[in-house]
From TrEMBL:
The keyword Signal applies. Residues 1-17 form the signal peptide. It comes from Hydrogenophaga laconesensis. This is Lipoprotein. It comes from the Bacteria. Keywords: Signal.
C-alpha cells in the first residue's frame, strides 16, 4: 500500500465520524455543537478491528494479522486541528492478545472552507502527515444520505 493510500485509510475514521458513517464506536464519538469549523472533528475515535491478512495468506502471519486504530483529534484554532493516530497490530484476526507492534503517526489538517456537492455540504480539507499533503473533502451534513 503506498503512502497516500495509508494516509487516506488512517483518516477514514475521522471522516466517517464527521459524516455520521460507520467504522467508529458511537460511545467514543464526541457530540460537539460549537460554531468553529474544526469542532465537529475534535475528539477520539477507535476504528473497529480490521483484518490486515486472513490466515494462511501471508507466510509471516500464518494465523492472520489484525489492527486497531485509535485516532485523537485536537483543536489548534478555528480552522486547524492536529491528529495523533496509534495503530496497534495483533496476531490473528480478532485484535486480541498481546500486540506485536504499535506505531504512532502525527498529523495536522486545515479546513479551507465548504463546498456543496451532489450529496450535501462538505468541508474542503488539506491534511499533512509525515510531510505528505493530501487534499480531500469531508461531509459535514448528512443531506440525502441513507
Amino acid at each position: 500500500m503506498n503512502l497516500l493510500s495509508k494516509i487516506a485509510m488512517a483518516l477514514i475514521p475521522c471522516l466517517m465520524a464527521a459524516c455520521g458513517g460507520g467504522g467508529s464506536n458511537p460511545d467514543t464519538e464526541p457530540q460537539n455543537t460549537s460554531a468553529d469549523p474544526v469542532d465537529k472533528y475534535v475528539g477520539q475515535w477507535v476504528r473497529n478491528c480490521e483484518v490486515m491478512f486472513s490466515p494462511a495468506v501471508n507466510a509471516s502471519y500464518p494465523d492472520g494479522l489484525s489492527e486497531l486504530e485509535d485516532l485523537t483529534i485536537g483543536k489548534i484554532n478555528a480552522s486547524e486541528y492536529g491528529t495523533t493516530s496509534i495503530e496497534t497490530k495483533y496476531p490473528g484476526t480478532t485484535c486480541t492478545g498481546e500486540a506485536i507492534s504499535q506505531a504512532t503517526t502525527l498529523g495536522a489538517a486545515q479546513i479551507l472552507g465548504t463546498k456543496t456537492v451532489a450529496f450535501g455540504v462538505v468541508d474542503k480539507v488539506t491534511i499533512v502527515r509525515n510531510g505528505v499533503a493530501l487534499k480531500l473533502i469531508s461531509q459535514v451534513a448528512d443531506e440525502g444520505l441513507a
